[in-house]
Amino acid sequence: MKSIVNQALLACLCKPSDSAIEVTNPATGEVLGSIPVQSRQEIDDALERSRQAQKEWQKTTAKERAVILKRWYDLLMANQDDLGRIMTMEQGKPLAEAKGEVAYGASFIEWFAEEGKRTYGDTIPGHTGDRRLMTIKQPVGVAAAITPWNFPIAMITRKAAPALAAGCSFVGKPAHQTPLSAYAVAELAYQAGVPRDVFQLVMHKSPQEVGDAFCKSEAVRKLSFTGSTRVGRILTAQCADTVKRVSMELGGNAPFVVFDDADLDAAVAGAIASKFRNAGQTCVCANRLYVHDAIYDQFMDKFIAAVGRLRMGNGLDEGVNVGPVIDQVAKHKILGLVDHAVSQGAKIAAGGTLQDGLFVEPTVLTDVEQSMDIVQEEIFGPVAPVIRFSSDEELITKANDTIYGLAAYFYSRDINRIWKVAESLEYGMVGINEGIISTEVAPFGGVKQSGFGREGAKEGIDEYLEVKYLCFGGIQG
């Protein structure tokens, strides 16, 4: 490891104890180290330090903040290999995917370094001759964030970068399964020049205790959360007492649709990329596949063959495309959904063999019905239930039959159908003839119970800004 990343890990690791969180490799069970935790009082103290530091940070110019953020971006990219290896060891995803996430996470820092210089206000035509009207944008204050384990670097940078660029201070709680990546990224931020009290990470044995501290604190003016809809509901309600700005990126149940006029090879490639990336542990991955009757057999032959070529194993091993799931709770849920679907009449067309450790074999289910739990719930694993459909109207009804509305995908070459379906799907993001849609230049977020607010793009920094209206009176003509 390069010294700068090694420094980060040495700084945050501690001896195993009751006041530390043990981090393990999901592929091997090896203990990687222990992370110290803070008490509730220490977390409250960190939030107060963040409030004081934010007052000075917002006095820096957007250009000064951009210079620091660009240095942070450069450090992440210079340490991409080491950061990717850390991520693979604690999270499990294949090394190529992990290194790709480092670049993806860094892209938000680069983007918002520039976007922070474009937080323009407006001049407004006055309604009387002696007045001049305008708006300016100012940072909301202390921004707190709770991030998940499935993208341990990108979910930190996607929230921290716009906050810092806007002039906010930032306090984050990484997932207890994957804190090493977050602490390494934080150390690189400090090396780049971000003051330590402006960017802090906190850990506690109880995630609920951190959430309670963030929600109740008068110091925190903005909370951003990525995680389950169940927890998002709780946090949103808890933030009501202090009327915080809140953004929620919650659960998904993405339909992946293959129409009868689709390019089948492209659709198969898109389905494999969308469904099995990170072992199916992404909020925007294809959760249920709908395939038109007319091309069902052709598609399934190609799809099952492609699934059979996937290689499962330790993400550090050459050629592996599917790593382990994150923990035993996740594996139990995935296998439970598969077993229940089979008991309801679904058939295993590929995979399905019980694996040792935390591995789940890439699996395809056929004879799946819309009412089955595996269609209605987010699987978060490498299992693809496939459903037949025969008309556009039937498809749209089934695709929208969920409380979630994060991402959807479909393949078609009919421009009339493309517009109709894209406009009819009740989702915040739609991939058309494309299975991977995330990028820093486009807004990421959902509708319905998949949450609200947007990350990335020009909309992402607005989440951390307040609009202030200024009215100048007494202007002499």
UniProtKB/TrEMBL annotation:
**GO molecular-function term, one example from the UniProt record:** succinate-semialdehyde dehydrogenase (NAD+) activity
Which SUPFAM superfamilies does the UniProt entry name for this protein? ALDH-like
The organism's superkingdom is given as Bacteria
Q: Name one Pfam family in it.
A: Aldedh
Q: Does the keyword Oxidoreductase apply?
A: yes
Which parts of the sequence belong to the Aldehyde dehydrogenase domain? 18-469
Task: Give the enzyme's EC designation.
Answer: 1.2.1.20
Question: Which UniProt key words apply to this protein?
Answer: Oxidoreductase
Question: Where are the membrane-spanning stretches?
Answer: none
Q: What is a biological process (GO) this protein takes part in?
A: gamma-aminobutyric acid catabolic process
Give the residues annotated as active site. E249
Family as reported in the entry's similarity comment: Belongs to the aldehyde dehydrogenase family.
Name assigned to this protein: Glutarate-semialdehyde dehydrogenase DavD
Source organism: Parendozoicomonas haliclonae
| Lineage of origin | Bacteria, Pseudomonadati, Pseudomonadota, Gammaproteobacteria, Oceanospirillales
